[in-house]
Amino acid sequence: MIWVLIAVVVILLVIVGVLVAREQRSRRLKDEFGPEYGRVMAEQGDQRAAERELADRRQRVETFEIRPLDPAARERYLEQWAAAQRYFVDEPVDAVGHAHELVQRVMQDRGYPIAEGFEQRTADISVEHPAVVENYRAAQGISVRARHGQASTEQLRQAMVHFRALFDDLLAPGNARRAEDASTALAHDSGGGAITQQTTRRG
């Protein structure tokens, strides 16, 4: 009889241990991915499937050689962004296209592969930059509509703001994942109007 009780206790301890480990894993993924956790949960409709996808994303990105930009490259990219922003006044559609290309160049320079398509790039970015990955999706959606002549000037302005959110995060020195969140604002006014933004940065 005593052995039966011991076996039951052992089994219960194992079950409790598994449940605690699973809860800790869920909490860690929620903290790591932020709003992206909820988005993937809604998309998958199953917690275990969602967490498996997020864990797979993290494992994939860990194989990359992600590196910070050197100061000279950071300054060069900032100058290129300023040029794209000035271009927006006269050619907003082309300016959004330039902004998109600039973000991809920065991603590649940081060590992210960019040849596998937008969805994969978004998944990769979500690991280190979860606070701005939705900005990237929004900017991409407007950019696609712009190529078909279906985006207003205000929507194009918003695309620039969204692209700048990711751009700033990618340019941030050091490990973006471990930095404190901060808000920055940028305003540009040249003839036709202003592009004003507030971005969430993780570095």
Structure at a glance:
The chain is mainly α. It has helices spanning 2-33, 35-44, 47-61, 71-87, 92-110, 118-128, 133-147, 153-171; strands at residues 182-189, 194-201. The protein folds into 2 domains: 2-61; 71-201, no CATH class.
Q: Overview of this structure, please?
A:
- By secondary structure, the protein is mainly alpha-helical.
- It folds into 2 domains: 2-61; 71-201, no CATH class.
- 68% of the residues lie in helices and 8% in strands.
- Helix 7 packs antiparallel against helix 8.
- The protein is elongated and about 85 Å long.
- Mean pLDDT is 80; it is low at 175-194 and 196-203.
What are the key terms here?
203 residues; 2 strands; disordered C terminus; two-stranded antiparallel sheet
Q: What order do the helices and strands come in, and which of them pair?
A:
Blueprint: H1 2-33, H2 35-44, H3 47-61, H4 71-87, H5 92-110, H6 118-128, H7 133-147, H8 153-171, E1 182-189, E2 194-201
Antiparallel strand pairs: 1-2
Helix pairs in contact: 1-2, 2-3, 3-6, 4-5, 5-7, 5-8, 6-7, 7-8
Distance between the termini: 60 Å
Count of extended strands: 2
Q: What is the count of structural domains?
A: 2
**Average pLDDT:** 80
- Computed over alpha carbons, the radius of gyration is 21 Å
Structural class: mainly alpha
- Helix % is 55-70%
Q: What would you call the shape?
A: elongated
